[in-house]
Write a structure and sequence with these properties.
With 131 residues, the protein is of the alpha+beta class. It has a four-stranded mixed sheet, sandwiched between helices. Strand 3, helix 2 and strand 4 form a beta-alpha-beta unit. Helix 2 packs across helix 3.
Length: 131
């Protein structure tokens, strides 16, 4: 596989898994690194061989225009794509990760990338038992 690719198996598509992730008490990891909020949990039932399955959400309440929501979603996805290999999670782990955009205006890519690196480093430390 390509080092910097994103694949279908890395996307969190199960509506049931998303529902459990965002339900009260469903996440075992939650961090706010402005402009992103991350929630994550272990999911041993997921069949995919990717260690982390993620989803990105940019609420309409925060960014009213669809063009702005799509642009922020692309920035977040690109930041994840370029940085998720630097913070490995154990291959035996299956983690569901939700990334929520919390700012109410467009943020530059540099701010998104900085927040993403911090979230991924804390996620890696939390689920590999180094914390």
């Amino acid at each position: 596989m390509k080092k910097f690719g994103l694949y279908k198996k890395e996307k969190l598509c199960s509506s049931r898994a998303v529902e459990i992730l965002f339900s009260p008490g469903g996440a075992e990891f939650s961090r706010l690194c402005y402009p992103l909020r991350a929630v994550a949990r272990r999911n041993a039932l997921r069949k995919s061989d990717a260690p982390v399955a993620f989803l990105i959400t940019v609420p309409k309440k925060r960014l009213r225009h669809a063009v702005d929501r799509v642009q922020m979603r692309r920035r977040i996805r690109e930041s994840y794509r370029l940085n998720h290999h630097d913070y490995p999670v154990a291959d035996s782990e299956r983690i569901d990760l939700g990334l929520v955009y919390v700012a109410d205006k467009l943020m530059p890519y540099s701010a998104v990338e900085k927040a993403m690196k911090k979230i991924l480093s804390e996620l890696s430390a939390h689920f590999s038992g180094k914390q």
